[in-house]
Write a structure and sequence with these properties.
alpha/beta; 3 domains; five-stranded mixed beta sheet; two-stranded antiparallel sheet; about 5% strand
Amino acid sequence: MSLYQFFQNRKWPDWTAYAVALLGVVVYLIRAVTYAHTTIPGLDEGSYLYKGYLFLTGVYRPFEPYGPLTNKAPLAFLIPGAAEFIFGPGLRTGRYFAVFLGLLAILGTWITARRFGGKWLAAGAVWVFALSLMIIKIHAITASEVIVSAMLAWMCVFALGENRPAWQIAAGSVLATLAIMTRQNMVVVLPLLVLYILWQNGWKMGLWAMLAGGLVLLIGHAIYWPNILTIWAPWLPDNLTPFLDPFRLPKEVVPVWNPSIDLGNRIIAFFQGIRYHFIPVAGSISALILWSRPRDWKSSAAMRAGVFLAVLYFILFAMHAWAAVASQYESYSCVFCFTPYLTFFDPLGILLFVIAISAAWNRAPSLVLKVAAILLVLVFSAGIGFSAFENVGSPLLNLPVPRMRDGKILEGLTTLSEVLSNKFALSLVLIKKYIALSAGSLAGIAILLLAFWLWRRSERLGTGTGFAFILVNSFLALGLLFSPFLSAGGGRVDCAQDLIRANEEVGTHLAGVIPPGSLVYWDGGLSFAPLVYVPNIRIFPPQINDGYTFRIGGDPDLLYRFSHWNSELDEGWKSQADVFIIEEKRFSGWKKFLDAQEFEEYQRPPVSPSCEEGSGLRIFHRLP
């Protein structure tokens, strides 16, 4: 009997499953609030907060030439901006709003999971979130991932299943469109949803869904036409769409940020994403391995929902894996964005897993699928271990092993790291990678042996349960149980101090010393979050994205029009700015420029906006 069957079949009081789900929500909430107060603000978060507030207050407009870079669809900025406009600008508003959206994503996932899988599987879906520390951490910051995740979860609430009312079909389609208007990489969601609704509900409902979603999409684009084409032009081949060249940054300009990411680190980034999102990814693949024939599904509605979720999930997975890990589109700077990218569609993977378990869990798959199950366990275990090499510490490095020379065992012991270092001349990083890869591979073999033992035991009992079924279920159960350990590294708390309060103190200090109307030059770190608290100042908008929008060469006016900058623009801005905000660790490069004859330093903020060394701010103003 599987764990699911144990909980589903036993006569529990009706409230028990709901209490388990509620406990999962409480665990999630406590952890999310902790992360909200301790996670270091990054470039994207500062960008969403600051640009969103500027857009909502009418200082700038999305896609405005010479304004802030609108490199994402407009709602990515407008939704956090609306929260700030209503509840007040600041990191606290942005992060509490993100936590609220995370709770909405969980609620939406729970409702749909209960519809298809019952109350116990719905409770299990909640605990997937509660035990996945990295998912919680991403949910707890102001970013578009949690916005889209909540939208997709509620799209499923409204659209999936039998006999959905017309207004819910329309609402689901509108949410699919809003997801596209939040991140353009969700572009496939609406057409696939319309196809599913046509299949499940017939052409009338399909037409209703297409009209509702399509109308919102057209209106959204019409509001920002034609400059909204800047987010779509990079997706299309230049030679086939020369008419979009006015919306493309010239190719001759060279990014200043262009690190080389080798194959090994790309593999690490890929398996890091799988490790941090284990159940959504491994559960979705397992659903395909244990997928039943159409006639064996419990209901046609479940089968159709399962097909829709599988197609949508794996298309989105492939798109984001390609964009982050494989292609050169954004991967020069965003290989390790694969982990947050998966957060967009976690609810889809969890729901696919729930539907497959409840309606189509094949207990005796074919030989080919048995091989696929074995490969899943071995490859994922090895890859997950490899991706966690940075967490290899002294216990493994100093593991006692026999001393050997010329194939003979000598007296005494040495450490594993010394053996690898002396015999193979490996660096510490490579030693950690080999140990992590080996540990992961051994874990995979151990899971195979455990599954084999359980299978032989079930054979003696005559249950008729196949080896692949037991293997996949064992792998997933252990993965769920050890989800907090899979988040090792990424799930750590960044800082001991309260960073929301620290940013509020820094922001209050800046607002107190910077005169209203000042033109501010920012070199204060990756995150613009401290300036969210400073009203009535002027900035150089391309600086919000720091060096990621800095280019070598190029026409200054054209670059500025596209919200980018170069050294020529930089020199001009330095000559115009009234106030300079400099991060302490960057200050050494400013000493010559900030001559005491021309500039005076304001009192420094009492705290730093981050716990990273050298993250304090220094503020200088130009003397009359």
